[in-house]
Hints:
Blueprint: H1 10-13, E1 16-21, E2 29-36, E3 40-48, E4 56-58, E5 64-65, E6 73-78, E7 81-89, E8 92-98, E9 106-111, E10 118-126, E11 131-139, E12 147-155, E13 158-170, E14 176-181, E15 188-200, E16 203-210, E17 214-216, E18 229-233, E19 238-242, E20 253-260, E21 263-271, E22 276-280, E23 287-296, E24 299-300, E25 304-309, E26 314-316, E27 322-324, E28 329-346, E29 349-364, E30 369-379, E31 382-393, E32 398-401, E33 409-410, E34 414-422, E35 426-429, E36 432-433, E37 440-446, E38 450-459, E39 465-474, H2 492-517, H3 525-554, H4 557-565, H5 567-609
Parallel strand pairs: 18-31, 27-31, 33-39
Antiparallel strand pairs: 1-9, 2-8, 3-7, 3-9, 4-5, 4-8, 6-7, 10-11, 11-14, 12-13, 12-15, 15-16, 15-17, 18-19, 19-22, 20-21, 20-23, 23-24, 23-25, 26-28, 28-29, 28-30, 30-31, 32-34, 34-37, 35-36, 35-38, 38-39
Helix pairs in contact: 2-3, 2-5, 3-5, 4-5
Amino acid sequence: MKNKKSFLLFLFAIIICVFAALPVSAASKQAQIFYAYSEQDVVILFSFDKEVVDITFISPSGDKYTKADTEKIDYAQGELWATYRVKSAEQGQWYVEYDLKSNSGIDYSIIDENTGIWIQYLDASVQENNSLLVEFEADSDSRKAYYDYTLYAINSFDSNDYSMIARGFTMPNEAYSCSVDISALPSGTYYLRLEAYYYEGDAEIFDSFSSENFVWNNTIEPIAMENFDITIDFTEGISTMDWSDYAKWSDEKYYVTASCGDEVLFDAELEKDTKTMQIVFPKDADSVEFTIKTMKNGIWSAKTIRKIDFTKEYLYTPVGAVVGYGSGQIELRYKTTNPAQIHVNLNGNEGSFPVENDGSLFFDADSDINTVYASFSADEHTTYIIDTEVYLDKYPPTITLIDDIDGKTFYTDSAVILGSVSDAVRLTINQTETELADSTFSYTANLNIGENIFEIEAYDVNNNASKMLVTLYRVPADGKSGAFSATWKTYIPLFAALTASIIIFILCAVFMKKNASTAGKSKHTQVYLIFFDIIAGCSDAICIWQFIKRYLFSSSRAFLDFAETSMVNAANYLMLQKVFGIAAAILSILFIILLLMTIIVLKKKKKKEEPA
């Protein structure tokens, strides 16, 4: 049909009194539109960018007029434009009331009445000789001697189904009638659409008008196609129409359409040699409607229509082109309104399975590449199939620790696990979903005293899973309590060593005094010295052991974590390490002195016991 937008060229070729835009408003609003200096007819053209909306005119006296007030308003509408003629407009300021709706704005122009064309009426009546008697009139005040017209017959139930049935020219301002051959028009309910136009310079002056409905019964119309077969591959989103079993040798052409709601999927006229057609449909479609009509002797038959409802019947594999090694199974999901047999061919192995209602069939994917063909017939003319290859994905994601802390010991109540995962879409640590950012993850692990095990699991798009166990240990800084603190218990080894040292000094003093009084003749001298050596050596060993233990800890990474939790405790720890070091040095000197004294006493005793 003629593009209605051509009327907008009118703005550039005719004498324009006003060209403006109505104020933008989210809700209904009033605006001045024109001022009538005397009672006169005023023609206004409105153009829209999204949708045509209704305009209400308000006269100077406050009366409101819409397109429904035909005694006062003449109205014509096209694609994104509308014209109003206010007849005998009252003198004074006129206003309009409007709602933008989805439009960003509304442009309008007031045009010279003499340049317009206005269809007054359009009547049609069916004749016995497969013709239609049409009568109409279009008025114009221009000096044009004639105007062109085009006449369309439009299906009342499908505006996309139309045919141009007449074209010509006639004079304005007088009735015109003609007989139109409609023998090529299929039977049905139609209305006529008349388009009248002429050219003023480079601009097209245009109007259109629709008739009432009329019923047409074509007695020479070809018989509609009996049926056609449809095959639905829901997995791939492909349907196949096949009318080869129903085509006739006398068919001249075919007209095939497919639609999903308001979306046209296919619309084409096909030559007689074409007997099948593949049509792609959205995989999320609820239904698809297919139609076909045939032409014989230049006349189209009525449509044969079939609508396939995917909410009632289907057959597809939800896993797509790849199945995970973890499950290793191919699922065929089905739904049928009647009991049926699903025939399956998997890698050359065939079988039939009775099904009803809805459910799934599962088969092992025993090859790297699995060829699957399955089908069931919902009725005599509708078949659902799966025709695809399913790949077996044997490779789970790979988990790598960026900082390998597995098996390490911590003195803090938490640790951070950093890692990366390849080919994963989901990650859990101890069953807790963990965010993946650019295939890396960071997880703060809360640590209890003792052993802590963390289970890291990664899943790919095919649900293949890989697992890693990370074991972390937490010990208190003092080896006993939950946290290091410089209490009296911490100094027990030092107290023991110092006490032993004091005892040694006291005993040494007593021993030396006694030894002097007995002139070194006490038979227990050697025993005392050996006893003193043992006490001094044990005290020295305790201090050396504590110093080494603290030195090793203060040189480890765990001490840095410990220092982060408490700088005061860390300072006390280092101070105590130094104290034990000094005590160990002093006791070592004392032990050496006592050891030398013991050796000297033993040598003297040996000389005295030797015979002269």
